[in-house]
Amino acid sequence: MSRHVQSADASVLERRLRPIYEWLDCNNNKKALQECEKVLKKTPTFQCVRALKALILFRMGRENDCKAILESLNSEQPTDDSTLQAMTMCYRELQDLQKVCKMYEIAVKKEPTNEELHTQLFMSYVKVHDFKAQQQCAMALYKQKPKNPYYCWVVMSIVLQATRGEGSKDQGKKTLLLNLAERMMKKMVDDKKIDAEQEIQLYIMVLGLLGRNEEVIALVESPLGEKMQFPNSQMVKLNVCAKLERWQQVNIICKNILSESFDRWEVWKTYVHSVFELAETNINGLGENGSAVETADNTAEKCHEFICTILEGVADNSFSLRGPYLARFELGAKLQEKQLDTNEILGDISHLFIEYFRKFGHKPCCVVDLKIYLKLLDSDQKSELAGKLVKEVGIGPTSVPQSADQMQRHIGALQLSRLCGAHRNLSVEHLRALVTALFLHYQHGYQAYGKDLPATELGPSDNYAILAAHILFDLSIIENEMEYVVVAIALLGGLLKNSPSNFHAKLLVVKFYHILGVALSANFVYYTLDIKHLQLDSLGYIHCAQLATTGLFELCSIHFDSTARFFATNYKESIDHLTFSYKFGSFIKLDEFMDFREKMNNSTHYAMVVVDRIVLNLINCHDYDRLCNLDIPSNDSEIEWDKLSDNRDLDVYLTWDPEFASESVSKSKAIQRLYTQNLNFLKLRTRLLQTVSAALKVVQARDGERQKRIEHLKQTLKDWRKLEDEVKKTDLDPIPENLIPYPPASRLHGYLDTPYRPVIAAVLDFQLSLAIDELPQAEISCKSAQQQIEVLAQQLESVLTDSVDYRKRRKGLEMFVNNLELICISCVLCILCTALVKPSHSKRAKKKQPVASRSKDLLLSLVVNSVKKEIDKVSKLLQEWSEKVTEKDLAGLLGLLNLNTGNTETSEQHQIIMESYEISYKHIKNVFAAKLKLLDDL
Q1: What angle separates helix 503-516 from helix 519-528, to the nearest 10 degrees?
Q2: Angle between helices 756-771 and 775-799 (to 10 degrees)
Q3: What does the alpha-carbon distance between residue 153 and residue 167 come to, in Å, rounded to a whole number?
Q4: Residue of 501, 507, 509 lying closest to 458 (CA atoms)
Q5: Does residue 843 contact residue 835 with C-beta atoms inside 8 Å?
Q6: Residue 437 and residue 517: Cα distance in Å, rounded?
Q7: pLDDT digits over 748-790, tens only?
Q8: Which of 158, 231, 554, 593 has a 20 to 30 Å separation from 297 between CA atoms?
């Protein structure tokens, strides 16, 4: 009878909770709260509903009410799963996961035999990285319920203590912990309890960390190894043998795998590498049965023979596999690396390229495959190959492709020709003619093969237009005329009308718009890319990182907020990956997930966005109270500089520049220099914010603490000056702008061209003199501040020239924005000075000051008036500069290119560009107007 009653009660509770969860799922907090109130009227002590109410109140912004309910629930020590889960959600959103641990600890003490509560307690420790508590909890759980997964949880917790916890910095403790984990796994083996592949992988992980590679091989070859899937066991054995440099075994394992799976490219590379390792040591040997596969190849000839044997087998397939064909190129690359003659074994390398192109030239991957091996050819061979490939396609100056496959081969031949450096030797006239030909080929390809395709597919002839855009960019560099970039934008705009999903074209358009400083149009195209999640980090540099220099502060705010929100949410949500790894036994993935979380949390792009967001808040700050509410970093502890990582995907742009044929963009020395410059810029910008924070604390400090705060501000200014001097001694050469894949130049150059530190330091000296009530010093620092402020417009005017083309507009716009930032921060410091002069703002005790208030007011008004005069000068300069219209003969340029069909589109682009400039100028003027009003109020 009681069982029926409990069942009835459970169904009633479920029926009452269902509407609340449904409204929560719909994000309708108001309706969910109403449902909670209805239930609580009938059952005021219903713990789960109260926990849900707390969650709803937090989402409605009533954090204090949420915490009050949670404290009340904690005092009742709930143990039912639904209540605890609802409370867990609350603490998760409050970012207070330690209280989840305490909550489950209490619940487990009340019900020590409850397996589910023990499991949830373990997972709560996982979320806070308390590896020691994990171990103890998992062991208690295993003693109650002796199951293999719980035992493995104990072992993995010990491993994490050794690699990431208390043992990571103490080699003795690390070895002790790993030995304990190994003994526990060995006991599991001895007791014959291992029955899953994940448990064997955990054992292999422990042995690998201890460096017992011999035992790993023995384990894989033992009956236990049969529990692993064949490819996994073979790859484990292969990797361990490679670590042990047992190249004979590596070679034989690779041959065994490749005889079954012809296309395992990573195995092909390992096989070729092992051949040359064996050749250096003169080792060879036979397997047990002496078969060809069981013979280790120790010469390049034998390697080539094995590849040819595989190729004969591949020839019988109805489909082509690229791995064996590319293995010959890998062999050639190794021979070249060892300075051996490639022709003796492989013959004429050019023939291999042509053969590969004949077989796979109709596939887009052909060019990507071949470009990294162009280093096998000298410059003459590359030129010869470029000509042969174009002839191989069979398309002359007056002919067009007769099929989609032939068109793809033609595109591939042109791309490889560019990779061989053919375009570097062409004259301007030839490059223009090539653009015309490519444009006509694109139009023919679209009409013949691309009209009936779905909008989500890329057009088969799109790469003609993209290649033409690259050549137009080359022309803009050669002739120093940005009008070619405008033509390229118009050409790509026509492509996107036909292929709206072509992200390669969109990325190029965003790049070109930012080269011209046209952020508004770039923003429109960027939104069509639908960049989200991890791409906000890996691709944020193409747009978000450049918005801060455009004057479009509202757009900046939107992008900064969405990016920062992603990083915060990702760090909070990605913790679930760790708990799922334990639940499903994917222990080998735990390190990967933990590294990923830290990598995302320490992203340089994330740090820059956060800092830029705070600077933007300072630009929009108009009163002392709002300034006090800003979260401004006060020291370096908020950024772990040693752990910052560059997560940009620099290979996202299609490129056929010969500079990147054998080396990726991300590995170039220019990119390394750029990253160092960006890091230094971030450090300087952070130091600027720390200085403003220190200045604010001087004003907020009570009389007894003020001297300490003053000393801290002086030290911060010294540190800032020291850092700036160190940065100026580093390599400040800007990154080249002549190659599309390169990111934009560092903002460090614009920062150093703007007198941020001298102006801010001068105003802060004046603030300090007001804080210590020294009238003579205040008069001196007042004059110094006036002099530094008055330099701004003079410096700006000396750089801006009469000639204003597209490129100069972009650079000029960045200069105006930098000066605007500096003026806005000066206004913020004026607010702080006003708070010092007027006790009602600074909340200082009302007593007679050594310096007369009237004198203070007079000096402050002089500084404020200097800032106002400078705003007037810079505003006037901006107005004059914006009225210098860029008149360009785009129609004449189109005539030279024989692209008269694009005349209308190009003229429209010019109009769009000029309108975007005007909007940027308008935003900057509006900020200046707001600052003038602020200073008038002061």
Answers
A1: 170
A2: 160
A3: 18
A4: 501
A5: no
A6: 29
A7: 999 999 999 999 999 999 998 888 877 788 888 889 888 998 8
A8: 231
